[in-house]
Fold:
Amino acid sequence: MLPDLASLRVMQAWNLPESPGQFVWGEVPDPQAGPGQVRVKVRASALNHMDLWLTTGLPKPPSFPHVPGNDVAGVVETLGEGVTRFAIGDEVVINTALVPESALERGLDSVLDPKMRLLGEHCWGGHGEFCVVAAHQLEFKPKNRTWAEVASYPVCTTTAWRLLRRARLAPGETVLITGIGGGVATAAMQLALHLGARVFVTSRDPAKRARAVELGAEGAFDSKGPYPISADVVVDSIGPATWEYSVRTLRHGGRMCVCGGTSGPKVELNLPRLFFKQLDILGASCGSQEEFRYVTSLMEEGLPVVLDEILPLSEFPRALDRLRTASQLGKVVLEHPE
Structure:
């Protein structure tokens, strides 16, 4: 799963020399494709909070230097021995959840394999010239979509789809999405609207609330609560700061979908409310190859994505600052030189 770094060749990449620490631009060993692997010339990569967390040492990369970047799309540059599905020059996008090929037999639950690793966390990611992964992690780039659009969806839209699929979201049901602005929250809004749900969102930022309504949300509330609706499904990425109001919003038989905890790692759970209201609590981070393939098909059919800003790869530090201040609504994407 890790690229072969034995070659003396080098590439240019944003990399972390140590952690805690700061990213620097410079030469790192050039990863080569081994058996069953594909080397991709990166055309676009997108930011995630993982890029910030790595600089704090939580999580700490397995080795240094470390190249970040969870969301990656590009062009096949080299094929490892035994790769037959792809050809040099194919335009592709990479699933962030890396698993052994044998895990694909688990279908929708391949992401639950104990050996699952995240691109850009446990191994080198895409904020550099090249990225090497196993061929079974690739899907063909959706037609008629830009590189920036394609790089925006592997983490957030796949995670959102896995949550909403497991939550059995049906047309006409009501969804509350907390903390609109983040990648998964924004993708969940677009997917819920696509599925025919009524969508409401929360944010501390009046401008983000207004923008969400422009994008199709039926209503938007201040995240400090309370929220004047009843919901079948809540998609929460905030955690303890909004948990009580979010759970109170759920109807009997409601489903709480958790994809983050920006306000902290621990919440209090009222057990009688859980069992008397017969609530489900679901969590997800990324998704299976089968789910990723389905989301890729939705992208090809025209599923909207929300891009906050598109910057050149050289402006990665500026992009990090935008993420750090939670200023974005949608994905911040880096375009790479051809």
Notes: The first helix runs from residue 49 to 56. The two ends are 26 Å apart (CA to CA). Residues 171 and 196 are 4 Å apart (CA to CA). The chain has two domains: 10-154+286-335, 157-283.
